[in-house]
Amino acid sequence: MKLQEYEFWFLVGSQFLYGPEVLETVSARAAEMAEQLNRTGRLPCRLVYKLTAKTNEEIQSFVREANYDPHCAGVVAWCHTFSPSKMWINGLAALQKPYCHLATQYNRAVPNEEIDMDFMNLNQAAHGDREHGFLTARLRMPCKVIAGFWQDETLQRRLGDWMRTAVGAAVSRSLKVMRFGDNMREVAVTEGDKVEAQIKFGWQVNTWPVGQLVETMEAVRGEEIDALMETYRRAYIFDTDDLETVRYQAREEIAIRRMMDEEGCRAFSNNFQDLYGMRQLPGLASQHLMALGYGYGGEGDWKVAAMTAILKAMSEGKTGGTAFMEDYTYNLVPGEEYSLGAHMLEVCPSVAAETPHIQVHPLGIGDREPPARLVFSGHEGDAIVVSLIDMGGRFRLLCQDIHCILPPLPMPNLPVARVTWQPKPNLTTGLECWITAGGAHHSVLSYDVTAEQMKDWAALMGIEYIHIGAGTTVEQVEQQLFWNDLAWKLK
Ligand code: MN
After folding, report:
1. 261-288 pLDDT, tens per residue?
2. pLDDT of amino acid 72
3. How many CA atoms lie within 13 A of 453 on its CB side?
4. Residue 438 φ/ψ, nearest 5 degrees
5. Rounded to an integer, what distance in angstroms lies between the CA atom of residue 341 and that of residue 328?
């Protein structure tokens, strides 16, 4: 499903105590708020007012429907009046969808002159939201709390971001990853427990033979390749006369996409050590598939392939870009420190600062023909890098804030796409934190997804989350890892 096809259900807490007139007002206002919020254009999905909750049975019935409906990606709850929480226990204990507690109120200001006890009874979110928060805390359920006035842009943007995060959870729960070949020999961090990943994230990670991909490639028709070459011509600058090599990448792209679409897969991994029957490592092919929204991981890294697909789904419609990334080399000149990220070939052109060039160069490793690839530099801007690792018995998600810069000097002899960035809090402390926490060399780099969204996504998935930001110290990270290790053993 596309982002816009998901919806969120608005559930408003109240009770019978105040009489039918108050309940009618609450219901009318809740419908009005959902309508106005939808009209702001700041929510990526529709907010649908469903119910003013007054009884245990109503809430249980609401939760049954929310759990069942694939279009419902989450629930947004708010208490206009007081709403006793014991009537919410049965429903919320059974809820399987992401939950956001919107702590707001209908009116912005206290009306000094007119305020009386009728006003107080109708407008007591400050009272009702606290009773509601106690129960979600007592249930230990993941609950995103967003507080503020509902007409303020900041609140609307945060609610929109949370909706995207909840869609990321929905996409994760149904994600299928296609593996071609196993992990690169002897590499540790790309390994992981696929059964545990399916339990935690819902990912169906399975393998298909490279030989089947080769057969599918052989069956691709010339006209299909012609059409994709036209797409390449519209999007990229041809910086090569070797059209046969570019056409071979188009053939690979069409075949990989066909196999993924037939299986309903949204992400794939491959391994340059296992390209039996293929003349080129897919470069341009993998890059253009990522530009279309598919996830990818090199060297058999199915975890980063899945995460790339999820972050791309979360950022659908945004323009900053999201890419599979790998830390490669540093600039350690004092005052000019940065990290240079790239890959053998496969960086998504959604992060490009300029129109990417299609070039053909030999590949030093892998023993194949020189492949066509897109070459470009990443654009300037704030971003994050995200790494999911398997700690044995649990997954850990690392998220680091970074600031991407344009490469200070041209690199005319570097034949791959590259992104340069300054990690937070700075290169060396950020690196010490990342290595201490076991972060991988593979990551997802995104200009569109925020650290707050990744924290919320990790909470929805029930996994450990470590954030390295502007104020982070190595000592803090070490302490957090120590306590987390104990906590997860008790869990
Ligand atoms: Mn790699």
Report:
1. 999 999 999 999 999 999 999 999 999 9
2. 98
3. 29
4. 85, 20
5. 5
Distance 438 CA to ligand 1 centre (A): 16
For residue 200, the CA-to-ligand 1 centroid distance in Å is 25
Preceding omega of 84 cis (within 30 degrees of 0)? no
pLDDT category at 27 given cuts 50, 70, 90 is very high
CATH 3.40.50.10940 residue ranges of the chain are 3-173
State the distance from the centre of ligand 1 to the C-alpha of 354, rounded, in angstroms.
24
Alpha helices in 142-275 (DSSP H): 153-173, 194-201, 210-218, 222-235, 243-263
- Provide the residue count of the chain: 491
Q: What is the CATH number of domain 3-173?
A: 3.40.50.10940
Task: Tell how far the Cα of 10 is from the centroid of ligand 1, in angstroms.
Answer: 43
Structural contact between residues 324 and 444, judged by C-beta atoms closer than 8 angstroms: yes
Closest CA to 3 of 45, 49, 46: 45
Tell me how far the alpha carbon of residue 343 lies from the centroid of ligand 1, in angstroms: 6
Find the 450 Cα to ligand 1 centroid distance in Å: 23
